[in-house]
Write a structure and sequence with these properties.
There is one protein chain. By secondary structure, the chain is an alpha+beta fold. The protein folds into 2 domains: 1-34; 42-212, Nuclear Transport Factor 2, Chain: A, CATH 3.10.450. 36% of the residues lie in helices and 30% in strands. It has helices at 2-33, 45-60, 65-71, 90-109, 209-212; strands at 72-79, 85-87, 114-128, 131-142, 147-161, 166-175, 185-186, 205-206. Strands 1, 2, 3, 4, 5, 6, 7 and 8 form an 8-stranded mixed β-sheet that branches. Strand 3 and strand 4 (131-142) form a beta hairpin. The termini are far apart.
């Protein structure tokens, strides 16, 4: 009888140990996904307002001269591959962004139609009181079923224009998604812009703008 009791106790100890190890593993896994979000400093709230208006404008495909003049600095740089593309008029900016929105996005989602951009990660790095970098990792939703198909990362520099009393998009730099700036101040994404898809972000295929320009859907 004692021997049987001892065996039961040993089995119970083994089960409790396994449960403890499993619980610890789950806790560590959840902790690894935890992000410590920072609040946005007051002086940069306007920069994020401009940024979100830009994303909304792209999704709605309303890239007019008037709209872009409200959001962009007239001298805008795009650091995508080599050489740097410098745009010095709103018609130039509108032309480039309309081509990206209506041709590049279609190429990315092919054979489906482009549906919408959603943001999976968002961060910022203050440079001065009137200049800030915003880092983003976005997800392309393709087809009417909103399939999360690809992800890309960029850094936008925004500056405060005193003459217009508003923040403007000043420059764009492409980033390999694996180098998204996790050491910057991570911020919570507004609900209507946040990616909440069923696919994990790390499972979505990455793209580079400079490779897309060559007709390649890759980061190589």
């Amino acid at each position: 009888m004692k021997k049987k009791t001892s065996i039961v106790n040993i089995n119970l100890i083994i089960l409790l140990t396994m449960f403890s190890l499993l619980s610890t593993s789950c806790i560590k896994k959840n902790e690894s996904k935890t992000i410590n979000y920072s609040s946005i400093e007051n002086e940069y709230l306007g920069a994020f307002d401009t940024f979100y208006k830009y994303i909304k404008t792209v999704n709605e495909n309303k890239l007019s001269n008037e709209k872009m003049a409200e959001l962009f600095n007239i001298n805008f740089s795009m650091i995508i591959g080599n050489p740097t593309l410098n745009l010095s008029s709103f018609p130039e900016i509108v032309g480039v962004y309309n081509d990206i929105r209506n041709n590049t996005y279609s190429f990315i989602c092919d054979p489906y139609d482009f549906n919408e951009l959603k943001l999976a990660k968002l961060s910022y790095l203050p440079l001065t009181k009137k200049s800030v970098n915003i880092g983003l990792l976005d997800v392309f939703l393709c087809s009417e079923n909103r399939i999360p198909s690809y992800k890309m990362a960029f850094i936008y520099n925004l500056i405060y224009d005193e003459s217009k009393e508003k923040w403007l998009m000043n420059a764009l730099t492409e980033v390999n998604p694996k180098y998204y700036p996790t050491d910057w101040r991570q911020v919570e994404i507004r609900d209507s812009f946040r990616y909440n898809g069923e696919n994990e972000v790390n499972e979505i295929k990455p793209l580079l703008a400079s490779e897309l320009m060559k007709g390649n859907k890759s980061t190589d």
